[in-house]
């Protein structure tokens, strides 16, 4: 009797292990097919694995329905698959559910429900979810200051450039938590990742000697990094530096070139300054400035200066 029960248990365990391996294999093969653009095979295998309970396949199907890949976009189906994956602790699915609740896609907009899903994902150290909590609390004010900073710091420490920038901005501008040196520290981390808003704000700190030792060449370097990513305020600042000869040699032609790029974003003040600075140039210098600006745009801001 005991031997029969033992054999039955072994059969059940082997069957379960085989089923688990099969759905895992379906997902892996399906993912490989997807990466080879064999979408018909991929979708069939994802469905097979998802029906057998594979959370990665379920999350992947949620993505497919949410983004309208392979199938017609369907947020209701996306939510169904995300919920199944999220119930098994899949942090990507939990984060995606938070996004759908935040933006009212397939469900009624519900920021508090979005926060609940983001928190579940963030507790699994999901970087995007952690930043989403920081962002959502920041702009919609759902938590107290200390809790807000704790989520933003966690996202920033995980290397999220957006969170690093927003934390720096908070330390620079908030009356309660203001700490310019700490702002500069977070801006530096975001700037090192190529984040143009952090590069520009850090450039301002170096230019004015706030929280860091005043350093015009470093300010110019940072302005240029942001300006060559299309940041209009950085382009504006570079123009002023060339006009005034601060941190660089005075050059009215380059000043007009950068201000021409910046003025494309509008602003009466820019247009008036551009008109004045053009009046200081010869016909050839004006032509050179316009040619430089056009070349800069054509090359996607490569070798602008």
Put the structure in a nutshell.
Helix content is 74%, strand content 0%.
Explain how this protein is built.
- The chain is an all-alpha fold and 305 residues long.
- It has a domain of 73 residues.
- Helices cover 74% and strands 0% of the residues.
- Helix 9 packs antiparallel against helix 10 and helix 14 runs antiparallel to helix 15.
- It is elongated and about 75 Å long.
Task: Give the arrangement of secondary structure elements.
Layout: H1 2-35, H2 39-51, H3 55-67, H4 75-86, H5 91-103, H6 111-122, H7 127-140, H8 145-157, H9 161-173, H10 180-192, H11 196-208, H12 216-227, H13 232-244, H14 252-263, H15 268-278, H16 283-298
Helix pairs in contact: 1-2, 2-3, 3-4, 4-5, 5-6, 6-7, 7-8, 8-9, 9-10, 10-11, 11-12, 12-13, 13-14, 14-15, 14-16
Helix content range of the residues, please?
Answer: over 70%
Quote the beta fraction. under 5%
> Unreliable segments (pLDDT under 50, ≥5 consecutive)?
8-20
Instruction: Give the biggest beta sheet.
Output: none
List how many beta strands DSSP finds: 0
Kindly report how far apart the N and C termini lie. Answer: 86 Å
Continuous helix count: 16
Compressed to H and E, one letter per element, the order equals HHHHHHHHHHHHHHHH
Describe the global form: elongated
Question: Radius of gyration, rounded?
Answer: 27 Å
Q: Let me know the average pLDDT.
A: 89
Strand pairing plus helix content: what structural class? mainly alpha
């Amino acid at each position: 009797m005991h031997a029969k029960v033992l054999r039955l248990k072994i059969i059940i365990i082997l069957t379960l292990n085989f089923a688990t391996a099969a759905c895992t294999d379906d997902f892996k093969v399906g993912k490989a097919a997807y990466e080879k653009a064999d979408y018909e095979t991929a979708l069939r295998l994802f469905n097979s694995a998802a029906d057998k309970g594979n959370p990665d396949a379920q999350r992947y199907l949620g993505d497919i329905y949410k983004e309208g890949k392979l199938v017609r976009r369907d947020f209701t189906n996306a939510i169904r698959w995300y919920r199944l994956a999220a119930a098994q602790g899949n942090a990507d699915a939990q984060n995606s559910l938070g996004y759908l609740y935040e933006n009212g896609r397939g469900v009624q907009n519900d920021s508090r429900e979005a926060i609940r899903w983001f928190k579940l994902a963030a507790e699994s150290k999901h970087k995007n979810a952690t930043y989403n909590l920081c962002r959502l609390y920041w702009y919609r004010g759902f938590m107290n200051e200390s809790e807000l900073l704790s989520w933003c710091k966690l996202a920033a420490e995980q290397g999220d450039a957006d969170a690093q920038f927003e934390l720096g901005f908070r330390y620079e501008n908030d009356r309660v938590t203001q700490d310019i040196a700490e702002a500069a520290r977070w801006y530096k981390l975001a700037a090192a990742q190529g984040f143009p808003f952090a590069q520009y704000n850090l450039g301002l700190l170096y230019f004015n000697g706030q929280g860091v030792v005043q350093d015009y060449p470093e300010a110019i370097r940072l302005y240029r990094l942001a300006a060559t990513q299309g940041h209009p305020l950085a382009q504006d600042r570079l123009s002023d530096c060339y006009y005034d000869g601060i941190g660089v040699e005075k050059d009215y032609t380059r000043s007009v070139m950068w201000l021409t790029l910046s003025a494309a974003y509008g602003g009466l003040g820019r247009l008036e300054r551009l008109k004045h600075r053009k009046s200081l140039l010869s016909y050839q210098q004006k032509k050179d400035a316009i040619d430089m600006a056009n070349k800069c745009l054509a090359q996607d801001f490569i070798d602008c200066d």
